[in-house]
């Protein structure tokens, strides 16, 4: 039994990727935007599982965002952050998105026209300025790199 936890962790990291902490500023700002806590969403970087989805920078599952590359690239792209959190909070968590439903949608409409992706893109686009403003308010001494973008 003593070995179970390390073995589970080893298998998890080999498959899901390396777990990383979400920056506190993002957790606070996203909680405001989604009007509910988001600190239960676990982030994994350099995820073999995400890389298995060819061409995707990230993939999501219930309460998880799996990044194909390092997390730094994810946090420096707030539109992608909103997009992936939308999949988790508003689609997976709400029970609207399942692997079967997404697969059927993707087979019928492809990636760009699939309704789960259309909704996530629209939400991210609509809330991008709000996220940038919330992040900048929290880091007035050290603006985020994208702070110069105009909203
Ligand atoms: Zn998506």
Quick tags:
alpha+beta, four-stranded mixed β-sheet, 7 helices, 151 residues, binds zinc ion
Q: What does this entry look like structurally?
A:
The chain is of the alpha+beta class. It has 7 helices and 4 strands. α2 crosses α7 and α5 crosses α7. The radius of gyration is 16 Å and the shape is globular. The protein starts with a helix and ends in a 13-residue tail after the last helix. Zinc ion binds next to α5 and α7.
Task: Map the helices and strands.
Elements: H1 4-15, E1 18-20, H2 24-34, E2 42-45, H3 48-52, E3 58-61, E4 64-67, H4 71-75, H5 78-92, H6 99-109, H7 115-138
Helix pairs in contact: 2-7, 5-7
Bound molecules: zinc ion.
Zinc ion (ZN) binds next to helix 5 and helix 7.
Helix content, binned percent: 40-55%
What's the main sheet like? 4 strands, mixed
| Main sheet strand line-up | 1-2-4-3
Instruction: Note the beta-strand portion.
Output: 5-15%
Low-confidence stretches: none
| Beta-strand segment tally | 4
Mean pLDDT: 89
Short description:
With 151 residues, the protein is α+β, with helices and mostly antiparallel strands. The chain has helices at 4-15, 24-34, 48-52, 71-75, 78-92, 99-109, 115-138; strands at 18-20, 42-45, 58-61, 64-67. A hairpin with a 2-residue loop joins strand 3 (58-61) and strand 4.
């Amino acid at each position: 039994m003593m070995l179970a936890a390390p073995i589970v962790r080893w298998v998890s990291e080999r498959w899901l990727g390396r777990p990383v902490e979400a920056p506190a500023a993002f957790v606070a700002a996203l909680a405001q935007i989604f009007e509910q806590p988001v600190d239960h969403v676990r982030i994994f970087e350099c995820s073999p599982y995400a890389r298995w989805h060819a061409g995707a920078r990230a993939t999501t599952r219930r309460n998880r965002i799996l990044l194909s590359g390092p997390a730094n690239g994810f946090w420096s792209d707030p539109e992608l952050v909103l997009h992936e959190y939308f999949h988790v909070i508003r689609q997976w968590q709400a029970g609207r998105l399942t692997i079967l439903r997404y697969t059927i949608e993707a087979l019928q409409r492809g990636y760009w026209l699939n309704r789960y992706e259309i909704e996530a893109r629209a939400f991210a686009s609509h809330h991008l300025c709000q996220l940038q403003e919330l992040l900048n308010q929290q880091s007035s001494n050290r603006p985020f790199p994208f702070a110069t973008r105009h909203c």
